[in-house]
């Protein structure tokens, strides 16, 4: 089975993420997509992060009932910050019969030379890149990659956090059940 891994802080997961995950699952040769909730992205500040268990739960609520999508907390038990190559190495050892690929936006991909052991990552794992506006893929760094033309929403978790902080509605920017859960628990206020 070929599994696409979609890494993120998911702080919170939003509809833009869900469109990508589902599109990749149904429009490529990937059999499944796992959303890997990263406790701490090495290139991001951790101050604004909602507790990782809450972020995990919100992401589980988002994929609920979708057979091709799964959420993983595998990085919760690995050293912090969460380096993607370490997670890939761990997963490959743990599930030797599965084939893992990485899903990422063209913005993240252009930053890949800043990632830990990025050569090892690109030499061993296929990358599924979706185009994000203003970030065309200008260099593939010798990666085994394919570019997928997925539908995009101009949304970000930071924008959603900001709206909630200002007391404004971010309804429809996240799946309905996620919005309900955020409100019930007063997250990001
Ligand atoms: N609207 C979007 N459409 C497609 N991909 C997205 C979108 N927003 C983020 N991504 C990508 O999803 C992955 C996980 O994103 P992440 O959890 O960091 O969310 P984010 O919205 O970029 O967060 P923040 O605004 O807090 O930086 C990253 O590869 C990121 O580039
Ligand atoms: O491994 C690295 O060096 C590395 C550097 C930056 C980001 N990542 C991972 O990439 C995922 C998405 O990151 P970003 O910056 O696109 O939001 C997140 O899960 C991070 O842990 C990984």
From TrEMBL:
Recorded catalytic activity of this chain's protein: nicotinate beta-D-ribonucleotide + ATP + H(+) = deamido-NAD(+) + diphosphate
Pathway noted in the entry: Cofactor biosynthesis; NAD(+) biosynthesis; deamido-NAD(+) from nicotinate D-ribonucleotide: step 1/1
Domain Cytidyltransferase-like per the UniProt entry, residue ranges: 5-162
MF GO annotations: nicotinate-nucleotide adenylyltransferase activity
Keyword list, A-Z: ATP-binding, NAD, Nucleotide-binding, Nucleotidyltransferase, Pyridine nucleotide biosynthesis, Transferase
Gene3D superfamilies on file: HUPs
Pfam families, alphabetized: CTP_transf_like
EC category: transferase
EC number(s) on file: 2.7.7.18
Coiled coil regions in record: none
Function: Catalyzes the reversible adenylation of nicotinate mononucleotide (NaMN) to nicotinic acid adenine dinucleotide (NaAD).
Family indicated by similarity: Belongs to the NadD family.
Entry protein name: Probable nicotinate-nucleotide adenylyltransferase
Lineage of the organism: Bacteria, Pseudomonadati, Bacteroidota, Chitinophagia, Chitinophagales
Gene field: nadD
């Amino acid at each position: 089975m070929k599994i696409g891994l979609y890494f993120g802080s998911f702080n919170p997961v939003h509809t833009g993420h869900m469109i990508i995950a589902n599109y990749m699952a149904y429009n490529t040769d990937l059999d499944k997509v796992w959303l890997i909730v990263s406790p701490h992205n090495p290139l991001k500040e951790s101050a604004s992060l909602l507790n990782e268990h809450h972020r995990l739960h919100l992401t589980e609520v988002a994929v609920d009932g979708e057979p091709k999508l799964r959420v993983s907390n595998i990085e919760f038990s690995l050293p912090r910050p969460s380096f993607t190559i370490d997670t890939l190495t761990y997963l490959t050892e743990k599930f030797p019969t599965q084939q893992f690929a990485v899903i990422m936006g063209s913005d993240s991909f252009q930053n890949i030379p800043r990632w830990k052991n990025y050569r090892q990552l690109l030499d061993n794992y296929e990358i599924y890149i979706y185009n994000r506006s203003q970030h065309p893929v200008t260099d593939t760094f010798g990666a085994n990659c394919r570019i997928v033309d997925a539908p995009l929403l101009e949304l970000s978790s930071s924008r959603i956090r900001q709206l909630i902080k200002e007391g404004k509605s971010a309804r429809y920017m996240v799946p309905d059940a996620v919005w309900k859960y955020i409100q019930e628990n007063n997250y990001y206020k």
